[in-house]
Amino acid sequence: MKKIYTTLLLFFALISLLACDFLPTSTESTTTTFLTSERTTTTTISSSTDTTTMTTTETTSTTNSITSELTTASSAVPFKLETYNTLQDELDVIGLPSLGDVKVLVFAVDFPDYTSLSSPVSINEIDTAFNGSSSELTYESLQSYYLKSSYDQLEITADVYGFYRASHNASYYENEYEKLYATDPYTGDWLYGDDEVTYPDSDIIFEVMEYYDDVIDYSDYDSNGDGYIDGIYIIYNHPVSYTSGSDLWWAYEDVYIYEDTLFDNVEPYYFVWSGAEFFVEGDDNLNARTVIHETGHLLGLEDYYDYDDSDNLNSGGLGGADMMDNAYGDHNAFSKLLLGWIHPWVVTESMTVDISSFAESGDVILFTKQWNGTIFDEYLLLSFYTPTGLNEEDQNWLFTASGVIIYHISARLGNNPAQDYYVSVFYNNNTETTRKLIKIIEADMDRDIDNYSLAENTDLFQEGDSLGGTVYSTYRWYDNTALNAVISITDFTSNSVTIQFVLGN
Predict the structure, then answer these.
(1) Tell me, what's the pLDDT at 12?
(2) How many H-runs (helices) and E-runs (strands) does the chain carry?
(3) Rounded distance, CA 463 to CA 216, Å?
(4) Which residue, 345, 386, 392, 390, is CA-closest to 364?
(5) Over pLDDT 90: what percentage of the chain?
(6) 66, 69, 314, 382: which is deepest, by most CB within 10 A?
(7) Which residues 6+ apart lie within 8 Å of 20 measured at CB?
(8) Distance between CA 399 and CA 246 in Å, rounded?
(9) What is the pLDDT of residue 295?
């Protein structure tokens, strides 16, 4: 669901579901370097897609006054997490598979009272927004974005149909939508019973799929053979409710409500609902960011912004600096980890590690006090952010500088009683739980993300910064135990950074 701060959207989120051992391809080898001492050994690990060289050393002295009471970096080496359960392994129903070649259906829909003659985009432009090359758009198409973000592991091809003329005026569907949420202002009771309401988005999906039933073999759109169509997009021609109006005229991901509706022995399930106007918002000539964001939900990712910034819970999200926050830039390391696109280096002991630009290489470090064999746990993720790749065009909305970005993750699975309207597979989220699912540890410690939803260059760790030292010297895990480590940026170039981990006894 795109970022919005209105009561109506919060209410709508009650029924809106969020789902809103390949190695990353790289042209460079990744070198892991440890503190220099008298003895050095080198180990080379080869795989089908890359070669990783690890240089291991020992040291017998502390590195600076900050670490004087901690153990020194040792000859320990990180291990690469080659195989692990991803988010899609944990979902009951998968929308878009996160790996491979996937075909999706796109239906452009107009109405008798809002015909395609008034559409801000043509069918060809919609096709370009989904399938075009990078050179055809100011930013990216849906296909080119996910090819780059997944390091060439996910290719989405959209078949575009339309404009289909809906059987009723847009006003009819809007009225039906409003009936779904109509309550008595005094008692709070629903005004309409189940037999008196319908679901206009699902109704239109049924209409359009029935209309094209003789043209389309819907079984071609179930790439993983689970009996559900991987993804359906409805692009409606009606003004978007940017500041007022019905929430029906917004962008969201949801599930088709009528069970056991078969087309060619497969069922519609997850879908994206989005206005044609979103393709022309902003300064770009053709803008696919909204469908890119909503596709993140089809893959199973959640919104990382705070739906309700009026309370004291999880305010600020990620400060706008992420595709699943404010629809800008690349997906972050946590999202890519959930989708199985990257294989992190896991650190649980004192050592020093070099990593390259995350946008280019997918290098990431997972630091945890105890590795429990799962990514559905609490840990830190460290990556080297650069304003390159998918971040370059949007850097003014993200970060214009390079630096180490550290995320604090709390990804335990399960139902949290504190979750009221936010539907999630995780125990924590970025809206209504006391602990965030994902947060940026701000290197400047000014809490501008929490206070103003504003990520800044100064939130990135630079050479000389150290978490547990110069930055949040008493940083703690969510169970209130001490971090018990100093994580320092000891060397910094345009191509790589060196990160030193010195753990307590």
Answers:
(1) 37
(2) 11, 18
(3) 56
(4) 345
(5) 75
(6) 382
(7) 1, 2, 251, 252, 253, 254, 272, 293, 294, 296, 297, 303
(8) 34
(9) 98
CA distance 368 to 376: 12
Whole-angstrom Cα distance, residue 110 to residue 114?
6
Distance between CA atoms of 153 and 461, rounded to whole angstroms?
Answer: 30
**3-class SS string, 77-136:** CCEECCCCCCHHHHCCCCCCCCCEEEEEEEEEEEECCECHHHCCCCHHHHHHHHHCCHHH
Residue closest to 254 by CA, chosen among 274, 284, 276: 274
Distance CA 381, CA 363 (A): 10
The label of the residue with tokens 């504190």 reads: 418
- Cα(282)–Cα(248) distance, rounded to whole angstroms? 21
C-alpha torsion sign, points 176, 177, 178, 182: positive
Number of CB atoms found within 10 A of residue 460's CB: 22
> Between 142-149 and 123-131, two packed helices, what is the crossing angle to 10 degrees?
0
pLDDT for position 100: 97
CA distance 472 to 470: 7
For 181, which DSSP code? Answer: T
Domain locations in the chain as residue ranges: 30-89+312-503, 94-298
- Which residue in 153, 155, 337 sits closest to 144, CA to CA? 155
CB of 81 within 8 A of CB of 23? no
Q: Is 281 helix (H, G, I), strand (E, B) or coil?
A: coil
Query: In this structure, are residues 62 and 45 in contact, taking their beta carbons and an 8 Å threshold?
Result: no
195: which residues sit within 8 A by CB, 6+ positions away? Answer: none
Q: Which of 56-70, 269-283, 404-418 has the lowest mean pLDDT?
A: 56-70
pLDDT of residue 2: 52
pTM for this model (two decimals): 0.86
- Does the pLDDT of residue 30 top 70, yes or no? no
Phi, psi of 246 (to 5 degrees): -70, 145
Averaged pLDDT of the chain: 86
Q: What share of the chain is helix, strand, coil (3-state, %, to 5)?
A: 20, 25, 55
Residue the block writes with tokens 């008034």:
118
What's the rounded Cα separation, in Å, for the pair 157 and 148?
14
CA count, 13 A, side-chain hemisphere, 112: 6
Length of the chain: 505
Binned at pLDDT 50, 70 and 90, residue 185 comes out as: confident
- pLDDT (tens digit per residue) in 465-496: 999 999 999 999 999 999 999 999 999 999 99
Mean pLDDT within 430-458: 95
Q: Name the band, by pLDDT with cuts 50, 70 and 90, for residue 314.
A: confident
